[in-house]
Amino acid sequence: MRWRRTISPHGGDATVLQVEESGTWRAATPAEQLERAWAVAPSREGLLADFWRPGDVTLPMQPRSFRDCSLYERHWVQSSRGYVHRFMPAVAAFTDLFEAVLRRPFPAFRPHPLARVQPVYYFGNHLSFVPSGTPMRAPGFTRALDYELELGVVLRAPLRNAKPDEALAAIGGFVVVNDWSARDVQRAEMATGLGPQKAKHFCSSMSAECVDAADVLARIEALEAIVEINGRIVARTSTTGMLHRWGETLAALSNEETLLPGELIASGTLPDGSGMENGHWPRPGDQLRLRIEGVGQIEHQVLA
Q: What H or E segment, with its residue span, contains residue 251?
């Protein structure tokens, strides 16, 4: 079942939980609301305060935290290559020659060795999420705004020292996540060893709907996905090819650490799911759409 939240037509901070039935939306029954009690309702504060209008669709839930993994080797390689091409063209000439002659990725483009041993991630700003449909303007400190198409998991039950099958059973739903990024700021911040900061914390976005885990879990690592700009598909990708499967990933995150209901964990960018990889950077006036089959989509107009 798919579900979403709308802002109460009577104003204030209240939201209305709705479920999709036969292609139409209706108010959730008390039982359906109880089944999703783990999903904390968003409130009119932070970035959401500027887009809080009675009757509008808002976030399906307010994440209690946001861990963003990097689970796709192709993204590591392609994004590194794309970064070098845009910001280090002199170096790109050398790396291109290396790859053309040896027919393998330049060594520095490959994932960090730790990423093969365990899922790696950073903590993002869970308070800066906006829903699909929110107009997006690049922050003043960047000239290289980029999007990242990702799959997000929201927990419905706590986990600690879980086995992979126990971890999968704790998933409540899936959402589409867009991890907005300031690429020209990101590299310098990453070099500190503390992970991205302003480069990513200014905004992330989430699909307006959440789909129950039971609806797509059996095929969650084989879903098709697209990036579309101004009505034209510029990249096709999928959720296949993870360095660590979802059960293994969540189990590793729960190692001697308690994960709670409502926490959001994202897959990291799907291969070709960013402008730095596919070459289609967002520009003012663009209409961006990121979609994952069976889960949902995110749409934004990019403002000047």
A: helix 246-253
Give the pair of three-digit tokens for residue 154. 């929201």
Residues 6+ apart with CB under 8 A from 23: none
Side chain identity at 228, as an amino acid letter? E
Distance CA 75, CA 276 (A): 10
Return the DSSP state at 294: T
Bridge-based pairing state of the strands 204-206 and 129-131: parallel
CATH number of 2-303, picked from 3.30.230.10, 3.40.50.2300, 3.40.50.11260, 3.90.850.10: 3.90.850.10
Q: Tell which residue, 81, 90, 82, 89, has the closest CA to residue 108.
A: 81
β pairing state of 264-266 and 287-292: unpaired
Give me the mean pLDDT over the 265-287 stretch.
Answer: 98
Average pLDDT score over the chain: 97
d(CA 174, CA 155): 9
pTM: 0.96
Token representation of residue 218:
């059996």
The pLDDT-based confidence of 110 (bands split at 50, 70, 90) is very high
Contact 176, 148 (CB under 8 A): no
Residue recorded with tokens 């910001």: 87
Q: How many CB atoms lie within 10 A of CB 245?
A: 16
